[in-house]
Amino acid sequence: MIVRTTAEITGTDRDVAGPGWRSKRIVLGGDGVGFSFHETTIEAETVHEFHYQNHVEAVWLVEGDGTLVDLDRGVTYELGPGSMYLLDGHERHRLFARTRMRMLCVFNPPVTGREVHDEQGVYPLVAVD
Predict the structure, then answer these.
(1) For residue 33, what is the DSSP state?
(2) What is the spatial distance between Cα 66 and Cα 124, in angstroms, rounded to a whole number?
(3) What are the structural domain ranges in the chain?
(4) How far apart (Å, rounded) are the C-alpha atoms in residues 44 and 37?
(5) What does the record list as coiled-coil region(s) (predicted)?
(6) pTM of the model
(7) pLDDT tens readout for residues 84-116
(8) Residue 118: partners with Cβ closer than 8 Å, 6 or more residues away
(9) From CA 76, how far away is CA 128, in angstroms rounded?
């Protein structure tokens, strides 16, 4: 059994931040459970483009509101607390946070914690040790 709190991983290598976002990686590939689980915060009035070519991501928005654009299909979705989106087709997407957004995210295959978004917003597929 694994029990962790976001407080205990704050400030560790599981607490990763970039311009306008922060991801607390609660479960990682090294935990050996087949997925990773993150609490991600996107700051208000920021725009981010992502394209997870190597991962499927499910996102559940628990706080805040914003707009999600599927860049592959040109479809826009309004997001608020309780919204979920699943990137099951590896869709390129843009996220605009009107207010600070807090999301719970699951990745499959799991991320290891060593990934960094490239210039297209892609995480490379990094093998679990």
Answers:
(1) S
(2) 26
(3) 16-108
(4) 22
(5) none
(6) 0.87
(7) 999 999 999 999 999 999 999 999 999 887 655
(8) 124
(9) 35
